[in-house]
From TrEMBL:
Classification via PANTHER family: PHOSPHORIBOSYLGLYCINAMIDE FORMYLTRANSFERASE
Name this protein carries in UniProt: Phosphoribosylglycinamide formyltransferase
All copies of domain Formyl transferase N-terminal, residue ranges: 10-190
Organism: Brevundimonas bullata
Binding site for (6R)-10-formyltetrahydrofolate: 73, 98-101, 115
Function comment: Catalyzes the transfer of a formyl group from 10-formyltetrahydrofolate to 5-phospho-ribosyl-glycinamide (GAR), producing 5-phospho-ribosyl-N-formylglycinamide (FGAR) and tetrahydrofolate.
Lineage, highest ranks first: Bacteria, Pseudomonadati, Pseudomonadota, Alphaproteobacteria, Caulobacterales
Length: 200
C-alpha cells in the first residue's frame, strides 16, 4: 500500500531521443497509488520525439541544448540543475540521456539519480551491449536499473530483468526485446526506490 497521505516524489526525466522509457515512467507515475510522479522532462536535443510524448501526457517538456555550451559540460548541467531546483525535483531518472555526466552533477544528485542500462551489469558497461553479448555467446541479456555514480554504469544495482538470447539473434532484434523488458523494470525499480526513500 502506498502512503497516500504523503505527496508523490517529484521526478525529472532526462532524455536525448524517442523517450520510450520516459513514457513508461510517466504512465506508471500517473497511477493514483504511484509513489512518484514525473513533473518535468528535459532533453539536451531539440525537437526529439520524447518531448512530444511528454507534452501529450500532460508533462512539462523542456530543451537545454548542449551545443551552445561547447565543451563546458558543467555549465550545461548547471543550466539543467537550475530548472530542476525551480521545480522542486527530488529524484532524477536518466532515460536514454546520451551525455557523460560531470562529477559536479553526479555529486549534486548523489543517491538521487537513477539510470537504466541495456545489459546485465557489471557485464558490458558502455555502448554496443547487445552485439557484445551475442559475440560472447551469452545465453541471456537484459537490463539493469542502477544508482548513478561517477564511474560509468558502476553504481549500486536496484533491479534487473533477464531476456534470453535466441539462436540467430541480431543486435537489433535483441534490443527490441530488451527494450520491452526495460519498460516494465524501470517504473518498478523507480517506485521501489522512492518508496524506500520516503520510509527512511
Amino acid at each position: 500500500m502506498t502512503d497516500t497521505c504523503k505527496p508523490k516524489t517529484r521526478v525529472a526525466v532526462l532524455i536525448s531521443g524517442s523517450g520510450t522509457n520516459m513514457a513508461s515512467l510517466i504512465a506508471a507515475g500517473q497511477a493514483a497509488d504511484a509513489p512518484y510522479e514525473v513533473v518535468v522532462v528535459i532533453s539536451n536535443v531539440a525537437d526529439v520525439a520524447g518531448l512530444e510524448k511528454a507534452r501529450a501526457a500532460g508533462v512539462e517538456a523542456l530543451t537545454v541544448e548542449h551545443k551552445p555550451f561547447g565543451k563546458d559540460r558543467e555549465a550545461h548541467e548547471r543550466a539543467i540543475n537550475a530548472l530542476l531546483v525551480e521545480r522542486d525535483v527530488e529524484v532524477i531518472a536518466l532515460a536514454g540521456y546520451m551525455r557523460l555526466l560531470t562529477p559536479w552533477l553526479v555529486q549534486k544528485w548523489a543517491g538521487r539519480m537513477l539510470n537504466i542500462h541495456p545489459s546485465l551489469l557489471p557485464l558490458y558497461p558502455g555502448l554496443n551491449t547487445h552485439a557484445r553479448a551475442i559475440e560472447a555467446g551469452d545465453a541471456e541479456a537484459g537490463c539493469t536499473v542502477h544508482v548513478v555514480t561517477e564511474g560509468v554504469d558502476e553504481g549500486p544495482v536496484l533491479g534487473q530483468a533477464r531476456v534470453p538470447i535466441l539462436p540467430g539473434d541480431t543486435p537489433d532484434a535483441l534490443a527490441e526485446r530488451v527494450k520491452a523488458a526495460e519498460h516494465t523494470l524501470y517504473p518498478q525499480a523507480l517506485a521501489a526506490f522512492v518508496t524506500h526513500r520516503r520510509a527512511a
